Amino acid sequence: DAEVSTRKKTFSEVQRERLDQAERTVLIKCPPKLNEKKLLQYLSTHGNVKSHFFFENRGINALIEFSEKSSIASLQDAVGIPNAAEHHVVPFKSRLFTFTLKNPGSQSAEEAPLHLSPQCHIPVTDLIQKLCLADSISSQMYLLLNEYQLTEENIKLRFLACSLVRDFARAYFPDSTVKPFGSSVNTFGKLGCDVDMFLDFHDTQVPATKMKKGPFEMEFQMKRLPSERLATQRILSVIGDCLDNFGPGCVSVQKILNARCPLVKFAHQPTGFLCDLSVSNSIAIRSSELLYIYGCLDSRVRALVFTVRCWARVHGLTNSAPGTWITNFSLTMMVMFFLQKRSPPIIPTLDQLKELADAKDKHIIGGYDCSFVSDLRKIKPTKNTETLDVLLGEFFEYYGNFDFRRNSINLRKGKEVNKPESSPLYIWNPFEQDLNISKNVNQPQLEKFIAMARESAWILQKEDKTQQIINKEPWGLAALLIPFGRSNSSKMKNRMKGIGSETIRSLLDSLKLNNANSQQKAVGK
C-alpha cells in the first residue's frame, strides 16, 4: 500500500479501491434542519465513520462511508420499515435511508449551515466572468477544468449508484459486480454527465480446471442459450424489471434490448444520475483505461480536452441527443491525435503503449488486440514544453486546415492515413479497427466544425489582450465561449472559402458512385 501511494495508481487499482469504498457506503435523506454533529454521533454507534459529505438533490442528502462493512449491517438491523398506511411497501432493505427528527421543534435554530458539495458545474455565463479574471489562456483553461471536472464527492456517488444496482444483481448472480465505465472513470467526465455501468461476470466465467486430486472434473450446471446476445438480453430484461418493480428511487426504466449493445436506461433519483446499464462491455472498459492513462500522463491533456468540449457545446457542434453531430468521444480522440502529432509528441501512440505491455497487460477481446501497458511508470514523460496558450491555438489551426476529404485519424499509428471509405469524418476505433467512431457525422456538421475552428484560430491570433481587458471585454478562452454572432459573419465567410468547394466535390464523387452502382444494377438485370 505504501508503494502504491507514492506513485500514480493503475486504472484497475483505482477501480478496486472505489468499488470497495462504495460497498461500505450508505445514502441518507436528511431533514431540512439538521445537527451534523448529532447525526454523526448516532451513526458512530454502529461503527467508525471514515468520511461523509452532504449534497442537494430533492432535499438534503448525506453520503456516509464507514470503515467497516459490518457497520452497515448493524445500521440496517436498527432501522425501521416505513409506515405503510397509504402505500404498501416492497420489503427490500437497501442502503438508502430516510432520517427524520422525532421532535423537530426542539432542534436549535442556530445550527451551523451544512456545507453542500456541488453536483453540477456553473453556467457558461458565470464561467466567462471568472475566466476574464485569469492572467493567461493557460490559467483560464485550468480554471475551466477545475469548474467542470468530476469532484471526489461526485465520483463516490457514481460508484455508490453502481454498488446499489449490484445489490439487486447479486440476488440472481452472487459473484457479479456492477462497474462504471466511460466518463465516470476515464478522468474526462464532466459534472452532470450520465453514469454508464456494466454488469460483470468476469469471476464467474473461469472455465473448469482439473481437480487437484482424483480422476474427476467438476463444473456447474447452467442454463444454455443459443447466443451470448440472447443471454445478455434475458439478463438485462430481468434486472430491468427488478429495478423497475423493487428498486427504491429507480424510475423511468427503459429496456432497450434490440440495440447493437443491449442496455437498460433508468433515472436513479437518490443520487440524481441518469444511468445506462449494459453487460460485460470489455472493449469499452479498455477504452476507458486508455483515456485514463492519457489523462494521467500530462496535466495539459485534460485541460485541452475539457476546453475543446466546452467550446464545441457552446457553438452547437455537440449535443446530448443522438444525431449527425460530432460526439464528445470523437472530439476527445481528435484532441489525443493532435497531441500525438506535436513535436515532440505530448502523448504516445497506442502502438507505442502496446510495445511497453507485459504478459499481464495482454488482452485479446473478440479477436481484437486490446493490449497496452497499465503501469504508468513505464511510460517516459514527454519533453514537450508548449504552453496551453500555444496548444489551443495550434489545435484550431491544425483542424481548420486538415484534409478531411482524403485523410483519417488513427490513434494507433499517430498519423493521418488514407480514408478507407467516404464518410466525411473518419476516426478509427482504437481497438475495433474496422469501425469508424464518427460514422454518424455528416458533411454540413463537419464543415461547421472547420468554420468554427478557423474562426477561433483567427480570434486567438488577432486579439489584443491588454486592450480588451481595458475595455472590459472577454478575452482569450472567454472570447471563444461566446457564440460567434452576426457582427463577424462577413469575416467568417472569408475564412470559410474553400469549404463549400469540398462539399460540391464530395457531392459529385457520391453522384458518380451512385451512378456507377445503378449502371451495375441495370447490367445485372
TrEMBL record:
Q: Which GO terms describe its molecular function?
A: metal ion binding; poly(A) RNA polymerase activity
Task: Enumerate the InterPro entries for this protein.
Answer: MTPAP-like_central (IPR054708), NT_sf (IPR043519), PAP_assoc (IPR002058), RL (IPR041252)
**Cofactor requirement:** Mn(2+); Mg(2+)
**Record keyword Transferase present:** yes
Domain Poly(A) RNA polymerase mitochondrial-like central palm, chain residue ranges per copy: 137-295
For this record, the Gene Ontology CC terms, alphabetical, are: mitochondrion
Q: What keywords are assigned to this protein?
A: Magnesium, Metal-binding, Transferase
* Keyword Magnesium included in the entry's annotation: yes
In the record, biological process GO terms are:
RNA 3'-end processing
| UniProt cross-references to Pfam families, sorted A to Z | MTPAP-like_central (PF22600), PAP_assoc (PF03828), RL (PF17797)
Q: Which residues form the PAP-associated domain?
A: 390-425
Q: Which Gene3D superfamilies match?
A: 1.10.1410.10, Beta Polymerase, domain 2 (3.30.460.10)
- In what residue span(s) does the RL domain sit? 10-78
What this protein is called in its record is PAPD1 protein
